[in-house]
Design brief:
With about 450 residues, this protein is an alpha+beta fold. The strands form 3 sheets. It has a 5-stranded antiparallel β-sheet. A 3-stranded mixed β-sheet has the order 7-9-10, with helices on one face. Strands 6-8 form a two-stranded antiparallel ribbon. Helix 5 packs parallel to helix 6. It has helices at about 5-50, 50-55, 65-70, 105-110, 155-205, 220-270, 275-305, 320-330, 355-370, 430-440; strands at about 75-80, 85-90, 125, 135-140, 145-150, 315, 340-345, 350, 375-385, 390-395. It is about 55% helix and about 15% strand. The longest helix has about 50 residues, at about 155-205. It is rod-shaped.
Length: about 450
């Protein structure tokens, strides 16, 4: 069962419960109003039957009391003699034209005990005028007299109609509100989820360019749709980087492999006829093998960090580590000025010493490779905010084009497009530096 079906079923159940509750209220209201009328009729009937006038006077003389004590209320009071003559004693003020149907009065007559209120039992009779019904108590006084105490149910009927109208309006309002709420939920919730499901199925079937339209991100489905699109964008970027990574790695490996195959083919064809030629070929082969080994090790380092393998954590004296790297740089290029004034002593870090050395060395080697020997190199380590340490590698070289700065730490990216230049590296050193720094919870920028 879909969510839309569940919501519709819930709306139907709520509507049915509302109708049921309102129906119970209507029935209960009529019962209460009827009990009130019956109580009033019982009070009047008891008062009349216990009066001395009833015991002494014939039915015809009851009417003589009308002018002396005019009734004030909604009760109809009449006496019926043995011949069926109806003598009206009191008429309802609110409905003077009301006349109950007296044809069945003899059938409804009851014998009462004036001292027992429960013996006065009211029943429903029709109106002789055809205007609704009435509640009545018919008392059998003796063989030739009946006393009729009745009251029209018009007011009860009016109250019922008003309550039914109000209940109907309430049901219509609730149904309209539920319909509007369902439409709103469907538009802002269910439809975006359906579109998101279709988009996910399309992506699963290979359509990586599929994106989903979503409502404003102020809603849950809007945030879900935006997160889904962001995820797809990130996935697309990762796939693009992976394709470029594979293409660049293939390109980097193709060159030494081509060299190896070339010297192998030259040897098989007898082209290496002298010992000197063989020695030269073997030296070149060893150089290309070392190049491939270094490339593969860099790739394995990146893959290991990408897979979030555990770091070999230990307390690293970062200040001394930077001083050691500076000493190595001085050995490689003794004529280069190296400034170590920015190195604060005794700064320690919890990290992987081997990877940190590789990361800082990669940035330093980049300076040594791409700047003139007379350009100054400055190394620094200082305490930063939030218990962070700031490592600085600066040089006085020609610099990098600003448009290339955002890409310096991308894998296989090289500012010098030519891949065979003597100064060109493999484009992995700065990428390894960024990956190592980020694995330690830090950041790197140029």
């Amino acid at each position: 069962m879909t969510l839309r079906t569940r919501l519709l079923a819930a709306a139907v159940v709520v509507t049915m419960l509302l109708v049921l509750v309102l129906g119970v209220i209507v029935v209960r209201q009529r019962s209460i109003l009827t009990d009130q009328v019956d109580d009033q009729l019982q009070t009047v009937a008891r008062a009349v039957t216990r009066s001395p006038l009833v015991a002494l006077a014939p039915a015809a003389t009851f009417a003589d009391r009308r002018d002396e004590n005019p009734p004030t209320g909604d009760v109809y009071l009449a006496a019926v003699d043995a011949n069926g003559t109806v003598v009206v004693i009191a008429e309802p003020i609110s409905e003077p034209a009301f006349v109950p149907d007296v044809d069945r009065l003899a059938e409804l007559a009851i014998t009462v005990d004036p001292d027992d209120p429960d013996s006065y039992v009211a029943t429903t009779i029709d109106s002789a005028s055809g205007r609704g019904q009435a509640r009545a108590i018919v008392v059998d006084l003796d063989a030739d007299r009946l006393l009729v105490v009745a009251q029209s149910t018009a007011r009860i009927d009016d109250a019922q109609r008003q309550l039914l109208v109000a209940s109907g309006l309430a049901v219509v309002a609730v149904v309209a509100t539920l319909g509007l709420a369902l439409w709103w939920v469907d538009r802002l919730g269910l439809q975006p989820i359906s579109r998101l499901t279709e988009a996910a199925e399309d992506v699963a079937n290979g359509r990586s360019d599929r994106r989903v339209e979503h409502p404003p991100i102020s809603t849950e489905t809007g945030r879900l749709g935006a997160a889904f699109n962001t995820m797809l964008d990130a996935r697309q970027q990762a796939e693009d980087r992976q394709r470029r990574f594979v293409a660049d790695a293939s390109h980097e490996l193709r060159t030494p492999l081509t060299t190896l195959r070339g010297y192998t083919a030259l040897h098989l064809s007898g082209g290496l006829s002298t010992p000197d030629a063989v020695d030269d070929a073997m030296a070149r082969i060893r150089t290309e093998a070392d190049r491939m080994t270094s490339l593969v090790e860099d790739l394995l380092t990146l893959a290991a960090i990408d897979e979030e393998r555990p770091l070999d954590l230990a307390t690293v004296e970062l200040s001394q580590l930077v001083l050691d790297i500076a000493a190595d740089a001085a050995v490689v290029q003794p004529d280069r000025p190296i400034d170590l004034d920015g190195v604060d002593p005794d700064l320690e870090l919890r990290g992987d010493r081997h990877l940190l050395t590789q990361a800082i060395s990669a940035v330093t080697s980049n300076v040594l490779r791409h700047t003139p020997p007379e350009a100054g190199l400055a190394l620094g380590v200082t305490a930063g905010p939030d218990d962070h340490l700031v490592i600085t590698v600066a040089d006085r070289g020609p610099g990098v084009d600003p448009g290339q700065l955002p890409h310096l730490f991308d894998r296989f990216y090289r500012a010098d497009i030519g891949r065979a230049t003597p100064s060109g590296g493999r484009g992995l050193g700065l990428a390894i530096a960024r990956t190592v720094v980020e694995a330690h919870g830090g950041g790197i920028e140029a």
